[in-house]
Amino acid sequence: MSHVIPTPEALAQALVELSDWRHEGGKLHKEFVFADFVEAFGWMTRVALEAEKLGHHPEWFNVYKTVRVALQTHDVKPPQVTATDLGLARKMDALAGG
Questions:
Q1: What's the pLDDT tens digit per position in 47-87?
Q2: Among 7, 23, 45, 69, which residue's Cβ finds the most Cβ atoms within 10 Å?
Q3: CA distance 60 to 38
Q4: What distance in Å separates the CA atoms of residue 81 and residue 71, rounded to the nearest whole number?
Q5: Global pTM?
Q6: Do residues 67 and 32 make contact, with C-beta atoms less than 8 angstroms apart?
Q7: What CATH number does residue 12 fall under?
Q8: In angstroms, what CA-CA distances link 23 with 14, 63, 82?
Q9: What is each CA distance from 30 to 1, 40, 67, 75, in whole angstroms?
Q10: In a domain, 1, yes or no
């Protein structure tokens, strides 16, 4: 898989277009809050199926109805945010209904 590294300007523009995502420590971060654990886990399952298709898997942490996500591409050195991460972030937002 080829990972395109966005320019700083393109990354900044993508963050304007993405809802509540932030770029920090070389990763994209967002916290998703759902109605309950079942809704959060269901969303994680849908995301996992999409991530597997991409061969690009999120770093995430779930407690009850909250899922914290960090996205970074490890196939590039040093690991950093790529267009693949931005695409997965958009897919996560869409699957969360936002």
A1: 999 999 998 999 999 999 999 999 999 988 999 999 999 99
A2: 69
A3: 16
A4: 7
A5: 0.92
A6: yes
A7: 3.30.1360.20
A8: 10, 22, 12
A9: 24, 14, 8, 21
A10: no
Which burial class, exposed, middle or buried, applies to 25 when counting CB atoms under 10 A from its CB (0-12, 13-18, 19+)? exposed
Smallest CA-to-CA distance from 58 within 24, 27, 22, 94 is with 27
Q: How many separate domains does the chain show?
A: 1
Beta bridge partners of 32: 67
- Gyration radius of the chain over CA positions: 13
Measured distance CA(8)–CA(67) in Å, rounded: 27
Task: Tell me the DSSP string of 70-94.
Answer: EE-BSSSSS-B--HHHHHHHHHHHH
Domain that holds residue 43: 8-95
Q: Which residue has the tokens 């969303």?
A: 43
